[in-house]
Inverse folding.
């Protein structure tokens, strides 16, 4: 077995473990009062309900967010940087595109995003391996 075979085997094992751990985390989160699971599998909890407009997938949004793994490790946070992020809603992971369209401006939601609505089988960083479930707290500040 060569180095490439060993690395491929490790990736497959990590992907399987991440998928199973993610399913377990999602099932536990879904039991919380007020948590909603959409048809796609996205889970969300309303932390603050705003009363502004809701964005469409074609809009550009301004958000503050805090992204963690299911173990709580922060991998990205506009909150920690102290500056909100602005981006086209149709240019982000599927879970964000779907989830932010459920929010009114002024809302803050917690999302649990299954791997197939995030980065799938891709390992995109040290913290986000293949088949990782992601957790975000997102505040929708504005629609541009």
């Amino acid at each position: 077995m060569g180095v490439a075979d060993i690395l491929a085997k490790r990736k497959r094992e990590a992907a399987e473990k991440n998928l199973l751990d993610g399913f377990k985390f999602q099932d536990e989160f879904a039991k919380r009062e007020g948590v909603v699971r959409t048809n796609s599998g996205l889970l969300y909890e309303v932390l603050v309900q705003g009363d502004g407009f809701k964005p469409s997938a074609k809009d550009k949004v301004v958000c503050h967010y805090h992204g963690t793994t299911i173990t709580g490790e922060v991998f990205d946070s506009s909150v920690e940087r102290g500056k909100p992020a602005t981006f086209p809603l149709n240019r982000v992971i599927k879970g964000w595109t779907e989830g932010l369209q459920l929010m009114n401006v002024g809302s803050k939601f917690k999302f649990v995003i299954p791997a197939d609505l995030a980065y799938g089988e891709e390992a995109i960083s040290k913290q986000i391996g293949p088949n990782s479930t992601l957790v975000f707290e997102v505040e929708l500040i504005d629609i541009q």
In short: The first helix runs from residue 3 to 30. The chain has one domain: 3-143.
